[in-house]
Amino acid sequence: MKLPGSTFSRYTLAGLLGVTLTATAVLGAAHMDKKGLEDAIKARKSHMQLYAFNLGLLGGMAKGEIDYDASSAEGAAANLAALAAMDQGRYWPEGTEAGMMDTRALPEIWSKMEEFDTATDGLIQATMTLEEAAGTDLQSLQAGLGDVGKACGACHKPFRKPE
Amino acid sequence: MTVARVATGVALLAVVLLAGLALYWVLTRPQPLSAEVSAQAGTPVDAPLAAPGPAASDGKDVFNVAGCASCHTAPGAEAADAPVLAGGKRFATPFGTFVAPNISPDPDAGVGDWSDADLMNAVLRGISPEGSHYYPAFPYATYTHARPSDIRALIGYLRGLPADATPSQPHEISFPFNIRRNLGLWKRLFVSQDWVMTDPPTPEATRGRYLVEALGHCGECHTPRNILGGPDRDAWLRGGPNPSGKGTIPDITSAGLDWSQADIAGYLKTGFTPDYDTAGGEMVDVIQNLSKLPQADLDAIAAYLKAVPVGN
Questions:
Q1: Within 13 Å of residue A61, how many CA atoms lie on the same side as its CB?
Q2: How far is B67 from B154, CA to CA, in rounded Å?
Q3: DSSP string, B229-283
Q4: From first to last of its 312 residues, what are the pLDDT tens digits of chain B?
Q5: H/E element holding A23?
Q6: pTM confidence score
Q7: B282 to chain A, minimum CA–CA distance in Å?
């Protein structure tokens, strides 16, 4: 949708919209029913699938199973960076942890929220680096992908229940 | 005569008991490396913080495959190029809680004043410098297969890592498992000098066997254990309950894992599964170590895993 008016008003509008959304989210979390909790879990699982779909192309190139192509690599890496940067505040309402729902999210996500945020920031950094590296050449892609893998592990180790 | 009979009985019982004790003593005796092997290890090191020897780069590879840092760094320590092996990680098991000791080169808290022979006996035989048995939470049942020259290189590398003065904490093990002498029997039952895979199909798989069976100790978690904590070598790498924690450890033979060799090697490098899910739990640390290895070694581990017999 193309918004009318100057850049200033467009950003102001986006800002107002953001405030409204955040306020709704907080209210929503307070009164969330089972369906709401299930939706949050569904959303974060879908988000993970989008990572996997884009990683599939990059990993296939890194392993030599798919021919390296700079522009499609760059596109997939840009998707990963965009996904990592998305606000996920509403993905993690209280009550959506392993044992209570169909999820492997450990309660530590809520008891150690700061560490969880740090791990999330790690993925943002790693995917931004990968976005710059992926289009350069195969070696740069492999190195960048290794760091993204580490960032995934840095969150999955403390915060996801083993199978 | 009743008195004589009782006396004879008591005497017989005493003889049987003594014989039993003697047998126990012999069977549970620590068996250090031969003087030959440990003499090769060199003279005791005078300077506790001696610089790593010329083999240090190889020693680093050994260190990474053997995964020393995964257990011996402090809980929550950041991954580092020169890890601080201060110890302190706790491993809750059915036998009690083991606490990884400080193995940094600190002369008091760590192993800085141990001789090379002391360290070789610790790693290859599971025996302390005082001559008592270590618990097999320390995977010497694996390391016993390692080439002594590789362990010497490892020791050279360990001596060059940062020292840390944090004292080691005692294990929290109750009777009867707190009697270390009994571990001599455990070793007789469960430490084998034989390879599990007797006939690797290719040179690559042979290299993989060395990395997995002698250093990488994959089997310590991925092979199920019996009630005495001994590995069931007939179910080698077939997975089972997590020996120290929640959940199940997966079967990584081709019966339980249909990944290609490239998939396995790629996973060990990046942590990504073929579906681009990622490693979790303790495997995150393992991959952090293994990702530093040459690609050829990761391919070799994968070749070995593809060749592991899957039984009936």
A1: 26
A2: 11
A3: S-B-GGGTT--EE-TTSSSEEPP-STTT----HHHHHHHHHH-B-TTS-B--TTH
A4: 678 888 999 999 999 999 999 999 999 999 988 877 765 544 333 322 233 333 345 899 999 999 999 999 999 887 788 999 999 999 999 899 999 999 999 999 999 999 999 999 999 999 999 999 999 999 999 999 999 989 999 999 999 999 999 999 999 999 999 999 999 999 999 999 999 999 999 999 999 999 999 999 999 999 999 999 999 999 999 998 887 777 789 999 999 999 999 999 999 999 999 999 888 888 988 999 999 998 899 999 999 999 998 865
A5: helix A7-30
A6: 0.81
A7: 7
> Which positions in chain B touch A56 (Cβ < 8 Å)?
276
Q: How many CB pairs under 8 A join A and B?
A: 73
Tell me which chain A residues have a C-beta less than 8 angstroms from the C-beta of B291.
Answer: 146, 149-150
Give the ipTM of the model, two decimals please.
0.71
Place of tokens 């006996």: B121
Instruction: Answer yes or no: do B271 and A63 touch at CB < 8 A.
Output: no
B97 beta partners: B92, B172
State residue B40 phi and psi, 5-degree precision.
-60, -25
Instruction: Show residues of chain B in contact with A153, CB under 8 Å.
Output: 271, 278-280, 284, 287-288
B281/A157 touch (CB, cutoff 8 Å), yes or no: yes
Distance CA B225, CA B233 (A): 9
